């Protein structure tokens, strides 16, 4: 079931189009990463979804409800990049306060904080929390009312690698229970393995939308193969891969090859043929960084 549908969504500021006829959907249980350079239109898109600003053309549907309507607000939760909380309140007091504002039982705060891994710290003042812990308070707040769609603006910016991994594990649990997640990020490598689909905005236009595998296939970028020569075999190894064909770098006992996708079996055969000269080799498929740079360059 589609929880978010954007159709031809367009927004202009001062005669300048910052979002240009964007079509995008997010289904129940799906996690979609929205990528784009500074000023690409990510926050504008999220503000339109939240109903904070009005579109100039096109539409937003949140499970059939218009953005900002009571029906949409009941389904959607938002976590801003830097959620701010009162430092003097404990985690429990802060979440209980938000629960009361939503007309819900404040005794639910403990369960929400436990869900985001803050059970032990729940009675401590938020002023003593690390950034990662404050981000978890934000997630606990976003979970109030069991939203069906979560909109997260750069949720892991400033978090250390372990906190990032834990945050994505929480998102994976939410997605497994059917929540749709739309998140923006600049950290390409971290969304690479943790999202179902990647949507790329460039100058307000949606220039890519698909799984990493689909984007990788469409970009058709070469793989990189690093070879290490066996002892005394450096020259023979370099000679086995003529310059100008696939070799892009040779230095000392190392050799780097560019391997177009269509040639990967042929290159593997060739490496096997040179097995006596090779001590070891690694294959690197194009990363999301490579694919993103390629798609952005093409769009520009
Ligand atoms: N209220 C506004 N008035 C005029 N221009 C605006 C307004 N809000 C955003 N813009 C412009 O719209 C464009 C898109 O901005 P937006 O904040 O959506 O980008 P973003 O992709 O979220 O960028 P970042 O990654 O830096 O947060 C930018 O050129 C920005 O200057």
Automatic annotation (TrEMBL):
SUPFAM superfamilies: P-loop containing nucleoside triphosphate hydrolases. Pfam families: ABC_tran. Keywords: ATP-binding, Nucleotide-binding, Transport. One of its GO terms (molecular function) is ATP hydrolysis activity. Residues 4-228 form the ABC transporter domain. InterPro entries: AAA+_ATPase, ABC_transporter-like_ATP-bd, ABC_transporter-like_CS, ABC_Transporter_VariousFunc, P-loop_NTPase. This is ABC transporter ATP-binding protein. It comes from Litorivita pollutaquae.
């Amino acid at each position: 079931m589609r929880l978010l549908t954007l159709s031809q969504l367009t927004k202009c500021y001062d005669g300048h189009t910052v979002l240009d006829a964007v079509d995008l959907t997010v289904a129940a249980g799906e996690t979609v990463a929205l990528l784009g350079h500074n000023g690409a239109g990510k926050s504008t898109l999220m503000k339109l979804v939240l109903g904070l600003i009005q579109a100039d053309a096109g539409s937003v549907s949140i499970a059939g409800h218009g953005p900002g309507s009571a029906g949409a607000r009941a389904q959607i939760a938002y976590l801003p990049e830097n959620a701010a909380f009162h430092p003097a309140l404990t985690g429990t007091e802060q979440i209980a306060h938000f629960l009361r504002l939503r007309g819900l039982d404040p005794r639910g705060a403990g369960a929400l904080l436990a869900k985001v891994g803050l059970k032990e710290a729940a009675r401590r003042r938020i002023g003593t929390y690390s950034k990662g812990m404050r981000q978890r308070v934000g997630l606990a707040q976003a979970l109030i009312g069991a939203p069906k769609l979560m909109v997260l603006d750069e949720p892991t910016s400033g978090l250390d690698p372990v906190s990032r991994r834990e945050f994505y594990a929480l998102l994976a649990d939410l997605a497994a229970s059917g929540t749709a997640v739309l998140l923006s990020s600049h950290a390409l490598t971290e969304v690479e393995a943790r999202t179902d689909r990647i949507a790329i905005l460039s100058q307000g236009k949606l220039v890519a939308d698909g799984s990493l595998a689909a984007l990788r296939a469409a970009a058709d970028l070469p793989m990189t193969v690093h070879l290490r020569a066996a002892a005394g075999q450096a020259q023979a190894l370099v000679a086995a891969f003529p310059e100008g064909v696939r070799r892009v770098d040779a230095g000392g006992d190392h050799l780097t090859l560019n391997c177009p996708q269509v040639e990967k079996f042929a290159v593997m055969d060739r490496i096997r043929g040179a097995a006596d000269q090779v001590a070891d080799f690694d294959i690197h498929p194009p990363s999301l960084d490579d694919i993103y740079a390629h798609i952005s360059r093409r769009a520009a």
